Task: structure prediction
Amino acid sequence: MANLGACYNLQNSGCLRELYEGGMTVERLTKLTGRSYGTLHYWLRKQGTAFRDPWKSNSVELSSEAVEFIDGELLGDGSLFSHSGRSASFSHTSMHYPYSHFVMEILSGYGLELSGGIYERSGDRSFFPRYPDSKGHPAYSIQTRSYLELLPLRRRWYPNEKKIAPADLTLTPLICRQWYLGDGHLYRGRGGLHISLCTQGFADRHITRLVNKLNEIGFCATMQSNRTIRIWKRSIVGFIDFIGPCPPEIEGVLGYKWALPEDRYPRTFRKTPMEIAIEAGGE
Result:
């Protein structure tokens, strides 16, 4: 795993060349370093970097499940970038290394190869400005290679180069689970227990759209003055039951989001078809 925070001499250390030749794009490096595209390109040339063909794109057959998974991550800290206008790549940043690794493994299972590995950036709040205690906390980033099939998703989510909540988005259990994992919190406030979904990155009309979609499913959801979405306590069990249990791979770091008081909020997870088949076979 490359640690960009340890590259103190970006101009001469060869660190930039290592990251670029490992698959990271110059545009991505500009976001991670705060340097201009021209400066980084000049430094890379000085370090003898062999530049990739900018028009080369990959192709993958995306399943409906893969699209749902990506849609759920895009509601949180996921992003889609298009460098050539012919293809797009998916990028994701998290404060939790196990979660970045989990997303990486899932994407690989869908046939999406990473551009490099998991990159760590330390001592910078720019990734998580809404968390006061994130100063000095490392951030972990992944980025896929560019794929032709990701470009329609990019155009759907960024029609005017700004992320929106697409009108045709259907909130499935998988989409809501990834949304909750990435930007959801089980919050205990003055009004009691509720779920909060961070949506400050969307315009108000798109937050309202997401609220309406949650209400259409049957949850009691409202937009708050801080531009987050609240799912009220009467709908907590229904929402948790809808998205299913926390994936076991990340239960150690994010399982607390499922920690409901059992005496007041009994868990009633729906059984998966596989669980039903296993039980039927054992009888």
Q: What stands out?
A: Strands lie at 78-81, 89-94, 119-121, 139-143, 184-189, 192-197, 221-223, 229-231. DSSP finds eleven helices and eight strands in the chain. Residues 125-134, 268-276 have pLDDT under 50 and may be disordered. Residues 246 and 252 are 10 Å apart (CA to CA).
